[in-house]
């Protein structure tokens, strides 16, 4: 069955693209905004993968068609808990950003100093060389 | 050529499989036991370690009657049959021969190690465990009948060797030797892997026995053979890979004796012997094997003649012997293979003996430099005799197994039709050098040097006994040529060519082999007598490129290259890493989607026109979130996106989802605002040079997801589970299928998800609160509210504690009115959740919103009034309710998380359907409430420290 829906797919693309742009930023707040947008995109993908729109899945009022053409309840249940978890994780990320502001005065993500210094460490590779005259 | 007989897929007897599994498993178990018990037992732990190879040796002895009469044993455990991944073992003549060596010598070397390491305190558990693991890996290597299993065992031995040479990594010399051995053998091991895979793919099977039965041919086989020979040559220290072996002599003597003389370095020779019956005729197998083997034999022998360190002398001797073995095993005729198998046996026995002898001398005299040794034979006569027996075997003199092998080797290249006279000349020259360095060894270790003080201490008999046992075995096998022949001939007969009926004998009569042996003896003795001239001869030789130098520069190049790649890719910038990852995601699978040819997708434009209106709204607001640099405005726009998405949910037929989405969106906005109070108002605009590439990646990612979504939904099929859910929901709880799924059908998922909520709430609290969770504002000051001295006219109990300018009486009044009704709404949502939109999540969120309202109107202290318990208690109660409900279901009905529906008659009010899963819903609601409360008490508190100094002060006062 073809459930492809151009409008919804484009909305998902816009949400995902916007989210992607924001998570590559330095300010942690914008990263969190991006994360929330990605969450919306993921929930919509779940719904769309479950099939086309239809009447709400209410077992008391199932349409007489066979198979009944209600919206698929399973992705809805999955997305429902995902929405709440996204909220909890957003709060956690906000607490992290808050911590960054408390400690550093801003919420910018700095470069990893360890990684940067990797290239500046003195060479130890020469250790492998020997002065021996083994043929 | 006759068609190959079908191979059995399982052992011919069940015992075969069980036996080998027990033996291999025992190695792992005992290795672990060694690592643990070394602390208490000291060097005695090696005796425990010896148990594993000893059991293996015993098991192999029981298989001798079967294997030597042609009843080979197979064991096969399927893993992923379609990928040809299986653990397949085969015990034939060659595997038996090597297995006996590996286990027998392994057990004796480990026994010897109890004495050798007696005075060492640290790292014994590590050494013992790795030695036992090595013994197990080596046994697995010779038994492996699957090319991948063989490769894994092969590299396991390499890793063990690295760990044993490097010891504890404290000494520069050891680190360097270990690193070099690892680089050389694993580098070439990679070639081996490629070669084996190529061979298996061309042959169409990964089982070695099948490949050998029906060997493939063609150009790819030539490539595979070359690659495999590279791997084998490096492992067995052949030219030009040989320098790692003398360098590895920094390892303790038992390790040199076992890994670098008797067992591991034989792996390359073993592989050549294994494949020779099928591939000796493939070009360029024979020329390569013979040239490399003979050249290595000559080079090793020559270099051994000038060594003064006895251990290095033996190491070069090992290189020479490995060359000899490679030439014999690879030549591809029956007599050569017979000689090779016999020499393999002989070499393992005499070289292990001699290494262990050097270890005893090193311990007793404190040196292994032959210029400083004198009178060792007088102080340690038993050791001198033991070493002499091994030397006789190394020199190839009767009545030892070395003699049997050497005579067979000469015979193999004297046979008509072999046509390799130059090989014979090379081997005779090599044997001459062998005799010369054998004499040098015994003379160096046990000879008397005038003027050198005698420093040797008498070694205890228990130290020498295992060594003497190995040496005696070499003589015993020589005295019983028929037994030795039986043990080695099984391998020889696997060769299809050169059947001559030659057998090992102590006396073959006068003939060319005997004369050649005599010639080598005389010439070797002459060289030994002229030993003082050797350095001058050496100086006259033209200089050749030093393999050591080349290997060193290669090793350095690898390290420098690794650093260059790392510093360029690991730049430390999180945005860069993310962009790389996202680009790969968008381009890799994206191209596959576009080029994959799923056929044209014909999407409908929309489900209903309002979808398009909401879509335009989402697009505009998302663009706003992305472009605005004022934080507050961006957050408000984000909320707008959320509400619009909730609208899309409604249009899709998901009212429950939309309800939760609206509630969550409101809460999210409030939490954002609470945090924004502490943040600078704007973010720095991104530099134009940075935003362009990010925008490109974002567009790519969005495009990819759009195409992926279209493809996925175009291939949608209605799920049968969904129909079942619709049918069963009323019995399980109520007609609202979504909530019945959440609380019944997939309740275990939900239980996991609300646990995540509890963890996230705890995470928020621990990030914000410095000292303890119940901290923040104590209720002490306001507790008096319950008594009568505070007028009841106050709308909100804690509101008066706010700063006067913050209070809004109107808001307080509205809150006072609205908050109770919100609680009623929440109770309603909870109760009807199984029938209409609502449920535990929505109820908890409404309660949470009520708390936000109280917090905004009455200040952060107000929260302590409405919920006197800390949020942790709420989270715990919620988890207790939900998990307890699951357990109760398990006790009641036998199924966890299962419920029932009861109907309560309320008389004139009608009847009420109560599902037990309401308890579960209530638990969810309590957890969500706890989460919101945690957030409000931390992010929403006034007195959260806003600077490190404040944090320290807060911590102090908390104490």
Task: Record the SSE blueprint.
The complex is a heterodimer of chains A (135) and B (959).
Chain A: H1 6-23, H2 28-49, H3 73-104, H4 113-118
Helix pairs in contact in A: 1-2, 2-3
Chain B: H1 14-41, H2 45-68, E1 73-80, E2 85-91, H3 93-116, H4 124-143, H5 147-166, H6 172-203, H7 208-213, H8 219-235, H9 244-247, H10 253-262, H11 266-279, H12 285-304, H13 310-330, H14 334-365, H15 376-379, H16 381-395, H17 401-414, H18 421-446, H19 461-479, H20 481-492, H21 512-529, H22 534-540, H23 547-569, H24 574-595, H25 609-627, H26 631-652, H27 655-676, H28 688-714, H29 720-732, H30 737-745, H31 747-768, H32 809-832, H33 840-858, H34 862-866, H35 871-893, E3 901-905, E4 911-915, H36 917-938, H37 948-958
Helix pairs in contact in B: 1-2, 1-4, 2-3, 2-4, 3-4, 3-10, 3-14, 3-19, 3-20, 4-5, 5-6, 6-8, 8-11, 8-12, 10-14, 11-13, 12-13, 12-18, 13-14, 13-18, 14-16, 14-17, 14-19, 14-20, 16-18, 16-19, 17-18, 17-19, 17-21, 18-21, 24-28, 25-26, 26-27, 27-33, 29-30, 30-31, 31-35, 31-36, 32-33, 33-36, ...
Structure classification of chain A: mainly alpha
User: Alpha-carbon distance between the termini of chain B?
Assistant: 90 Å
Instruction: Tell the overall outline of chain A.
Output: elongated
Poorly predicted tracts of residues of chain B: 1-15, 771-792
Low-confidence stretches of chain A: 131-135
Please state the oligomeric state of the protein chains shown. Answer: heterodimer
Largest interface: A-B, 106 and 144 residues
**Main beta sheet of chain A: strand number and arrangement?**
none
The CATH topology of chain A is given as: Helix Hairpins
Structural class of chain B: mainly alpha
Helicity range of chain A? 55-70%
Say how many strands of chain A there are: 0
The coarse silhouette of chain B is elongated
CATH architecture of chain A: Orthogonal Bundle
Query: From the alpha-carbon coordinates, what is the Rg of chain A to the nearest angstrom?
Result: 25 Å
The SSE order of chain A reads HHHH
**Tally of individual domains of chain B:** 4
